[in-house]
Design brief:
single chain, alpha+beta, 2,3-Dihydroxybiphenyl 1,2-Dioxygenase, domain 1, five-stranded mixed beta sheet, four-stranded mixed beta sheet, 17% helix, Catechol 2,3-dioxygenase-like lactoylglutathione lyase family enzyme, Fosfomycin_Res_Enzymes, Glyas_Fos-R_dOase_dom
Amino acid sequence: MSTPTLQTGHVGLNVTDLARSIAFYRQVFDFEVVREQTTGDRRYALLGREGTLMVTLWQQSGGAFATDRPGLHHLSFQVPDVEAVHRAEKVLRELGATLVYDGVVPHGEGASSGGVFFTDPDGIRLEIYAPSGAGAAPAPTQGAPTCGFF
């Protein structure tokens, strides 16, 4: 019996303020709103690109994302090149987003892959990275992937 090929579908995130989160994810990731319900008790938004659903936002939580609890560690998005990472970094700085490290950093010592690490308005840890082009700067963590310890 062969195992069918799997790929990640969409990722669902709980948020505290749907309108704020929709604006953030649209500006940072250039997502389109595929469908949304912004009134009533069941508020949500389905976000994607070119008809492909990528992230769902559910307004059904309070407080901030708890990084010390089991669950999502971080959500990562790959872009084609490091120039796209720098463009995202510029948008993040314009929005006043919290950057975990100063600018684009490699995933590890000697790695050419790397990106920008940041949090959304609810403290959910996010990453935008390129598979190459980030190797000139020193890695911010030693002996482990940068993306694992932020």
